[in-house]
Amino acid sequence: MQGKIIKLISNDYTVKSQNNIYVCKARGKFRNIGLSPLVGDEVLFDAENKYILDILPRKNELYRPAIANVDLAIIITSLKRPDFSSNLLDKFLVICEYNRVKPVIIFTKYDLLDEGEIKTINPIIDYYKKIYDVYINSDIDEIKKIFRGKVSVFTGQSGAGKSTLLNRIKPDLNLKTDEISMALNRGKHTTRHTELIEVCGGLVADTPGFSALEFQGMSNSDIRDNFIEFNLYRDECQFRDCFHIHERKCMIKDKVLDGTILKSRYDNYVNFLK
Q1: How far apart are CA 253 and CA 237, in angstroms?
Q2: What pLDDT does residue 193 have?
Q3: What span, in angstroms and rounded, lies between the C-alpha atoms of 185 and 156?
């Protein structure tokens, strides 16, 4: 039979197939080939003897959390308390792009901004809307629609309001708002296993999220190529392998100067290469 792994506790894999649940073990052959089944994997399994027989090809895989076949990374980004960090947001975005996981940005705590802060942040939000799906946390009805038919992972800075948002999306989760769930945090998250839970017609990974934000396995060219709006103009650079820093006749630098590319995005790119 074919099914999806929705939970892993110790060596017990919970597989869902046609609305039935099976708790299976992995065959010893996986150890021999250095491959372990992950939550999110589509697998072939022996329903009678409760063994996973084979793993179907993955479209992507995350290291932390260890999960496969993720459709969306929901990046919860605070605008105040904690203050907005374009560096952290852009780091999440590049890592998601590299791992072929579609990012969705949700800005929180917009209501805490004063008039001057709103005037400053609105052009930044508008810029990200040009290249990504972007929501404010008050857009709750629209946010609920993004989960349908998708496997999602929540991530973002500690204190950004992830638990508050999740309680509004699915009240029966009853998450304490002083705890961080499905989030980047090494503190109070009590989940010790990875599990997919049903939320608004989709599945959300109940994990601590991205617990490490290194550019693992990424080269400088990988970082460059995953600033996605750069790719619109790079063919117009003088050099085919332009890194948009010291080279002459660089269209990316020109687009930063004329405001087409957000300067903070470019500054973060240079910082990441360093």
Answers
A1: 9
A2: 73
A3: 9
- Tens-place pLDDT, residues 130-156: 999 999 989 999 999 999 999 999 887
Q: Which amino acid is at 259?
A: G
Q: What is the DSSP letter of 47?
A: T
Instruction: Determine what percent of the chain is predicted with pLDDT higher than 70.
Output: 90
Over 75-109, what HEC string results? EEEECCCCCCCHHHHHHHHHHHHHCCCEEEEEEEC
- Residues across the chain: 274
143 token code pair: 């946010």
What whole-number distance in Å separates Cα of residue 142 and Cα of residue 160? Answer: 19
Fold of domain 220-273: Ribonucleotide Reductase Protein R1; domain 1 (1.10.40)
| Residue whose C-alpha is closest to residue 73's, from 15, 19, 33, 132 | 132
Domain ranges of the chain: 2-57, 67-206, 220-273
**Would you say domain 2-57 falls under CATH 2.40.50.140?**
yes
Least confident of 8-17, 161-170, 211-220: 211-220
How far apart are the C-alpha atoms of 96 and 131, rounded to whole Å? Answer: 14
Q: What's the start-to-end Cα distance of the chain, in Å?
A: 49
In sequence order, the 6+-apart residues with CB closer than 8 A to the CB of 260 are: none
* Tens-digit pLDDT profile for residues 252-262: 999 999 999 99
Distance CA 237, CA 254 (A): 10
Q: Which residues of 182-206 are buried (b: 16+ CB within 10 A; e: fewer)?
A: bbbbeeebeeeebbbeebeebbbbb
